[in-house]
């Protein structure tokens, strides 16, 4: 049986990128912030990543209806709906698009022993490997659909020290309040 090399399979299956991870972390910080709009710049600083990297993620989340954006001195992003109504699948699809986990290349029909003319048993129906990957993808999508931002926020809350959400909130509040003060001091008199 002819199959893909391990490196090719790993490359094809690596569809969920770090954009999703940083996007989910940012959304968790928005849960902590409650109704306070946060800029993507502050969310990036909080996570130690490039603001331009995160700035590319948030428009996708906004287009999907996961966040809303407000402008102005105190503007930024907020969750567009309660965290219990935001599934991980919705986030993944918003950031990455609905791409298949596995891209079957129909290698089974190109096996060298067939001499360029694969038999019907090697090309008819869904490839056995592809069928396994389709089931795996459906299982993953079902799991992601069942998991919400609220569930994970509760888990993080149980694992983190009690002071952690307060520390994050204080860090964010300092930046949000200084943002308004800095802009007011820059305004012409």
Describe this structure in words.
The chain is mostly helical. It has a single domain (6-152, 169-176), classed as Arc Repressor Mutant, subunit A (Orthogonal Bundle). Helices cover 59% and strands 4% of the residues. It has a two-stranded antiparallel ribbon. The longest helix is centred in the C-terminal third of the chain and has 23 residues, at 164-186. The model is unreliable at 1-13 (pLDDT under 50).
Q: Summarize this, please?
A:
By secondary structure, this protein is mostly helical. The chain has 9 helices and 2 strands. It has a two-stranded antiparallel sheet.
Blueprint (SSEs and pairs):
Layout lengths: L5 H8 L4 H16 L6 H8 L3 H13 L3 E4 L5 E4 L8 H9 L23 H4 L4 H19 L2 H11 L4 H23 L3
Antiparallel strand pairs: 1-2
Helix pairs in contact: 2-3, 2-4, 2-5, 2-8, 3-4, 5-7
Task: Give the strand line-up of the largest sheet.
Answer: 1-2
Distance between the first and last residues' Cα: 78 Å
Radius of gyration, CA atoms, in whole angstroms: 23 Å
**Sequence stretches where pLDDT stays below 50 over 5 or more residues:** 1-13
Work out the strand percent: under 5%
As a percent range, the share of helical residues equals 55-70%
Give the helix tally.
9
What is the mean predicted local confidence, pLDDT?
A: 84
* The CATH fourth-level homologous superfamily: Winged helix-like DNA-binding domain superfamily/Winged helix DNA-binding domain
Q: Label the CATH architecture.
A: Orthogonal Bundle
Q: Biggest β-sheet: count, sense, barrel?
A: 2 strands, antiparallel
H and E string: HHHHEEHHHHH
What is the number of E strands? 2
